[in-house]
Design goal:
- By secondary structure, this protein is an alpha+beta fold.
- It has 3 helices and 3 strands.
């Protein structure tokens, strides 16, 4: 799953990046709609959701879900879109936590 012609279901159509590794996680939104994906696209999808969750697939390597979760915390929602990012909903979870500590 490393070519642009066949990307995992978690890859957003406007996200230009290729998959990194096999499909190993499921990302669910607040109403339990979801998509399976590689850790890379799973993290990008999770970062773009409000109240999203990630679960490892049964045959996933150990730690796949937590790696995806941690990666998502540092990504801005829809990180492939350029433009100014100043609103909390446009920043990563890590950036928002840093702002709250000031």
């Amino acid at each position: 799953m490393s070519t642009d012609h066949h990307r995992c279901p978690a890859a957003h159509p406007q996200d230009p990046t290729s998959c990194v590794g096999p499909v190993v996680v499921t990302v669910l939104d607040a109403v339990n709609a979801g998509a399976n994906g590689c850790e890379h696209h799973g993290a990008r999808l999770l970062a773009s959701l409000d109240r999203g969750r990630v679960y490892a697939l049964p045959d996933a390597p150990s730690g796949a879900a937590i790696r995806t979760f941690k990666a998502a915390a540092g990504l801005r929602p829809f990180c492939w879109v350029d433009g100014p990012r100043i609103e909390p909903s446009q920043l990563s979870h890590i950036e928002n936590r840093a702002r709250q500590r000031r």
